[in-house]
Structures are given as structure tokens and as C-alpha cells.
Design brief:
By secondary structure, this protein is an alpha+beta fold. It is about 25% helix and about 45% strand. It has two helices and nine strands. The strands form two sheets. Strands 1-3-8-5-6 form a five-stranded mixed sheet, with no helix packed on it. A four-stranded antiparallel sheet has the order 2-9-4-7, with helices on one face. A hairpin with a 4-residue loop joins strand 5 and strand 6. The longest helix is centred in the C-terminal third of the chain and has 31 residues. The radius of gyration is 18 Å and the shape is globular.
């Protein structure tokens, strides 16, 4: 009985340590080009909690254009897929400024997709985007965040950012379908 208990604890420890927080620092005032992120397809298994840090030196509008998981089969669905933005750092988190936002499925015209987005006006300081869930199969996600000075943010600029996020969803979906077809042919 004792050996069984020790083996169970060891297996649980391995499954959680494999999915420790991935921390990427976007630096000062990330733009849409510098705010792209992803957790590779198939790299996620089990419970995960990833943080992406950034710093603002002025009041800015933060836009999370999209965080999406486009999958080829239902087994790649991320259970409890969600995101939040917190003031502070992962080591010293402050108030939650966005979220938690739960992913929805489907994503527009893409049936096998789940995703979320959000925006807020933030004061100067340290922040981090926290993404988590329970990954199944060959799950993975990608997304983009950007900051804009609030005085300089015209509405059309956010429309272009949203359109680029939707275009990225389509490209990711086509890539996943192509990958699934190639795997099925083998």
C-alpha cells in the first residue's frame, strides 16, 4: 500500500512539474508586433498556468486581441481555458484588472475553436497576463496583446488589431487542419 501511495505522489509530481508556469517578459509598453505569444501545440498536457509580464510607463489601453486554441479534434479541447490580467508581478500579484475571462467555443465561423479577448485602460506600472486550464490531447494556444497610449488610440486602430487577430485565427485553423490531415495519412 505504501509503495502504491508513493508511486501515485511521484506521478502527480511529474505531471505538475512538466507544466510549470511559462514566464515571458514583453518588456516596456508591448506593441502588437512585440506582444505575440503561444504555447506550442502538443506542449501542453494536464494542468497549466502561464504568465506573460509587461510594464507600462504611462496610462495606456491594453487590448488582448485574442487567445485561441484551434483544434483538429475534440480531444484537443482545453478544459477550463481562461485568462486574467493582474497588476503587479507573478511573485507579488496585485488587483485583478481584467477577468477572469472564460474561453468560449466556437470562435465565430471556426467550429473547433475556443478563445477569449479583453481590454482595459491601465495606469503606469507592472502587470501580467495569466492563462490557465487543463490541456488534453495535443492542445496549444496562441494570442496577441498590445498597449496603446490612451490619448492616441483612435477607434479604427483597434479595428485593425481585431481584424489581424481574426486573420490569425483563420491561419492557425488551416495549419491545424493540414497537420491533422498529414498525421492521418501516416
Amino acid at each position: 500500500m505504501r509503495k502504491l501511495l508513493l508511486a501515485t505522489v511521484a506521478l502527480l509530481g511529474l505531471s505538475f512539474s512538466a507544466n510549470a508556469a511559462t514566464i515571458q517578459d514583453f518588456g516596456l509598453d508591448p506593441t502588437s508586433a512585440g506582444g505575440a505569444f503561444n504555447h506550442s501545440l502538443g506542449a501542453l498536457t494536464g494542468l497549466f498556468d502561464d504568465q506573460y509580464t509587461f510594464h507600462l510607463d504611462h496610462v495606456a489601453t491594453l487590448t488582448i486581441a485574442s487567445v485561441t486554441n484551434v483544434f483538429a479534434q475534440n480531444s484537443d479541447f482545453i478544459t477550463g481555458f481562461h485568462g486574467s490580467v493582474f497588476a503587479g508581478t507573478p511573485a507579488l500579484p496585485g488587483a485583478q484588472v481584467i477577468g477572469p475571462v472564460a474561453a468560449t467555443s466556437p470562435c465565430g465561423f471556426i467550429t473547433l475553436c475556443q478563445g477569449f479577448a479583453g481590454s482595459a485602460i491601465l495606469a503606469a506600472g507592472d502587470y501580467f497576463l495569466d492563462i490557465g486550464g487543463f490541456a488534453n490531447g495535443t492542445s496549444g494556444y496562441g494570442g496577441n496583446l498590445a498597449t496603446f497610449a490612451t490619448a492616441e488610440t483612435p477607434i479604427p486602430a483597434t479595428i485593425w488589431l481585431f481584424a489581424s487577430g481574426i486573420g490569425g485565427l483563420g491561419a492557425l485553423g488551416r495549419w491545424r487542419k493540414k497537420k491533422a490531415a498529414a498525421q492521418a495519412a501516416v
